[in-house]
Amino acid sequence: MSDQPIIVMVGTRPEGIKMVPVYLALRQAGHSVLLCATMQHLHLLQEVFNVFGVQPDINFDIMRTDQDLFYLTQSILIKTKSFFLSTQPKLVLVQGDTTTAFVSALSAFYLKVPVGHIEAGLRTGDKYAPFPEEMNRTLISSIAQLHFAPTKESVNNLQAQAIKSDAIFLTGNTVVDALYMLLKRIDNQTIKINVELVKRISEALDKGMIFMLLTMHRRESFDGGIEEVLSTIKNYLSTNKNIFCIYPYHPNPNVMRVIKSTGIGELDSVYLCGPLPYQDFIYVLRMCQIIVTDSGGIQEEAVSLGKQVIIVRNSTERMEGILAGMAHLVGTDSKKIIEQIEHVLTIKSLSLPIQLYGDGNAAQKIVDIIEHWLGQNYQCVSKKFFLQSIQNNIAKF
Ligand code: UDP
Fold first, then answer.
1. Do strands 210-215 and 243-248 pair parallel, antiparallel, or not at all (unpaired)?
2. Measured between alpha carbons, how far is 393 from 386 in angstroms, rounded to an integer?
C-alpha cells in the first residue's frame, strides 16, 4: 500500500458526526489517514471530536465572526492547496454539502487528486434551497470519482446527473453508524448525559406533559421563515400548557435575534439551551414525542429512531421519510404547522425504528469499496503534479 494518505475533510458539526465513523474505520483497517478540520464551525465541531474521542491531525482554524461564503471559500481553497501539495493524498474524502466539502473537492480537482463523496446524491431540485448546499453537492458530484450514496433515491439522482453507475455505491448513511455508536454508549453508560437535562425531562414526563423537540437554523429561512415558525410555536405552547419543549438553539446571530424578538424562551414550558453535545441530543431525540425541525441530519436520526418529524422547510432532499409516512413537510406556514402538530399528537403508538437511511455499517462498506478501488483502479494521477511544487512540512497548519 502506498504511504500517501487518505485525507478526511470536515468543517461543521454534521460533517463531523457523519465523517468520524469513516475516519475510525479507515484507521481500524490500518490506512494512513489524516483528519483535516477547517473548523467552519469551531465549538460545535470540537464538541463532536470530544464525544468520539478523536482530534484532527490538522486544524485550519478559519472560523470568524460573521463569516460569509466568500471568506470561507477563499480561505479553504488556499489552505487545502498547501495542505494537499505537502501531503500528496491518494484520495480526499468529503461529506455532504457544506462549503468545506465543496471547496475541498474543488481544490483536490485543481491538483488532480481523486475525490470520494460521502452522502452523495441528495437533491431538492431547487438550486436555492437549501442554499448553498444544493449547489455545493451538485458540483461535488461533477468532481468526485467515487460516490457513496445513502439511499436508492440518491443513487437515482446521481444517475439522472449522468454519473456513471460503476462509480456509484449504495452504502447507507454514516449518520446511522454514529447514532448506533452513541446509543450503545448511552445504554451501557460509558457516556454521561447532562444531569440537569435528564431532570428537566423526567419532571415534565412525570407531570404527564407531552415532550417536543424544536430546532431551527437554515440560512434560507433567515428572511422571515424562522420568525414565523418560532412565533407559531410560541403561541401554540402558550395555549397548550401540557407541552414541554426543548429548544437547543443554533448560535447563529440571525437565529439568536429572532429568538429574542419572539420571546419564545420566556415561556416556562420552554427549555431554551445552547447546542447540546451529541450524546445529550440523541438522548433528547430518543425521549421526545414530537419533533419540529428544519435540519437535514435530524430527519434521518428521528426516522431511524421511529419518530414522527415535522419539517419546517419548503422542500427536502430526504423524501424517504415522507414516503414512509414518518416525516411531514409543512414549510413555515402557521396553519400548516399547527395542523401537523395536532395530527402527529393523535398518532398514539410510536412507530418502530426503521432502517430507511442505513443499517449502521455504512462506514465499513465505504472502506471496503475504497480498498477495492485503490487495489483495482488507483493510479497516482497527481504525482507528477505534486513533484513540481512539493512542500515537506505540514506543521505550519
Ligand atoms: N445536533 C447536536 N446537538 C444539537 C443539535 C443537533 O449534536 O444541539 C446534531 C444532530 O444530532 C444531527 C446534526 O447535529 O446529527 C444536525 O446538524 P444540523 O441540524 O446543524 O445540520 P444539518 O443536518 O441540517 O446539515
1. parallel
2. 14
What is the pTM (predicted TM-score) of this model?
A: 0.92
Residue bearing the CA closest to ligand 1, atom 7: 278
Residues contacting 67, CB < 8 A, separation 6+: 40
Residue 196 cell numbers, joined: 440537569
Q: For residues 357 and 180, is the Cβ–Cβ distance under 8 A?
A: no
333 assigned to active site: no
Q: Please name the residues in contact with 285: beta carbons below 8 A apart, sequence gap of 6 or more.
A: 213, 291, 298, 301, 302, 305, 307
277 Cα: distance to centroid of ligand 1 (angstroms): 10
The model's pLDDT over 40-95, given as tens digits with 9 standing for 90+, comes to 988 999 999 999 999 999 999 998 888 899 999 999 999 999 999 999 999 999 99
Atom of ligand 1 nearest to the CA of 47: 7
CA of 137 to the centre of ligand 1 (A): 18
The string of pLDDT tens digits covering residues 144-175 is 999 999 999 999 999 999 999 999 999 999 99
Euclidean distance between CA atoms 295 and 287, whole angstroms:
18
